[in-house]
Amino acid sequence: MSELEAEIKRLIVTALKLEDLAPEDIGTEEPLFGDGLGLDSIDGLELGIALRKTYGLKIETANEELRQHFATVAALARFVAANRGVA
Question: Which CATH superfamily is domain 3-83 in?
């Protein structure tokens, strides 16, 4: 697991106040929404805000491409690495 993936896992736990979950409990390839971690659309919005603040991302309105970036921690890490500081 990369350091960026570990940072994102910590961000998910803190930003979404998932106190019963340790960052290490989140699988890098585990789906974040639905049957995986179980996040919902409100969690997605809150996570998007946290990612914007932390990494200076510019996140446009939700579309299928953005949903794919938010699918797993690994996908988010690739998105952050490619787009940090772009805003």
Answer: ACP-like (1.10.1200.10)
